[in-house]
Write a sequence for this structure.
């Protein structure tokens, strides 16, 4: 880099992975209404999906969209349920147990009490770590507890919408320790995975995997087809109704605004 911040690119190395989502509708698409791909970050080791139990309210449907987006990138995410001090612990524990049984690592945290946050630090060492989630869930607050020297700006929850307000406006990567990096991202209001066909959505719900081989049709969408292994598992309570409802909602929108 030059002293004025400019530089020259001599070589572009291949990415080992990258995280993306559907971009907002914009000009320049090949047909009206098409949503292009927005790259969030590349060469990531860990993705922490940050949610909150209240302020804003926990939304498992939104969390599941984040999870599918990460799974489709080939990166297993880690879930943080923040602000656990604002609600009965049984509520947070219910969701923690549900996602842990699927196979996800889940942390219950409170910035106010500084509980559950220090345990996250052992996952960060010598990794490139991205923190991602909706506005107002406390991403920057958690990072300020982990690394006070960052002094990241934090915002308030809107009393009108009960949703977070944007304080981080662009993704920024910080070198916090030797070979340890943190990527703080802007909070987002909605999330749609990019580039997934309907028949492939089920592959990004890990608890579906052992049941997929029992489907009669290899293009089964696990919605209405006869002889569906996933529907049989749902009837036998081997798959949670909450997760299956999320699956159907994603299935309904996954191919909208995309030109395959």
């Amino acid at each position: 880099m030059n002293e004025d911040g400019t530089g020259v690119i001599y070589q572009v190395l291949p990415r080992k992975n990258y995280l993306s989502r559907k971009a907002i509708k914009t000009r320049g698409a090949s047909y009206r209404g098409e949503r292009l791909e927005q790259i969030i970050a590349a060469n990531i080791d860990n993705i922490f999906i940050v949610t909150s139990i209240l302020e804003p309210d926990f939304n498992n449907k939104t969390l599941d969209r984040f999870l599918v987006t990460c799974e489709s990138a080939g990166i297993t995410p880690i879930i943080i349920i923040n602000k656990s001090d604002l609600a009965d612990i049984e509520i947070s524990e219910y969701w923690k147990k549900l996602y842990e049984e699927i196979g996800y690592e889940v942390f219950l945290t409170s910035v106010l009490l500084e509980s559950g946050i220090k345990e996250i630090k052992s996952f960060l060492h010598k990794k490139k770590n991205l923190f991602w989630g909706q506005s107002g869930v406390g991403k920057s607050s958690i990072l300020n507890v982990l690394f006070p020297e960052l002094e990241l700006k934090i915002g308030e929850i809107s009393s009108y919408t009960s949703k977070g307000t944007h304080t981080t406006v662009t993704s920024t990567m910080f070198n916090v320790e030797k070979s340890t990096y943190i990527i703080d991202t802007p909070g987002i209001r909605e999330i749609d995975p990019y580039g997934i066909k309907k028949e492939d959505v089920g592959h990004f719900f890990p608890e579906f995997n052992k049941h997929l081989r029992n489907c009669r049709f290899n293009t089964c969408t696990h919605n209405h087809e006869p002889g569906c292994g996933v529907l049989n598992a749902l009837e036998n309570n081997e798959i949670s109704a909450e997760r299956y409802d999320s699956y159907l909602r994603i299935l309904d929108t996954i191919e909208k605004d995309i030109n395959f």
